[in-house]
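Collaborator request, handled under Task 6.
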Amino acid sequence: MVPSDDTLGSEHDASAAIGAGHEALVPENTALRGQVTALLARVAELEHRLGLNSSNSGSRRRATG
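Structure tokens returned to the collaborator:
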């Protein structure tokens, strides 16, 4: 069975819409990847700082008040 011209046209339209949707998400994805990278660096920094302070290892923080 040979597809009709209408079927080919709607397939092309759907493909174009998907491509446009993809292109719209690229900048958002790039921004989110940058945020993830920054947050991972921050977590690593905080974990490092926790490791430097061994004076409170094994003890719980006391609530003040």
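The cover message to the collaborator said: "The chain has one helix and no strands. Residues 19 and 25 are 10 Å apart (CA to CA). Please let us know whether this matches your experimental observations."
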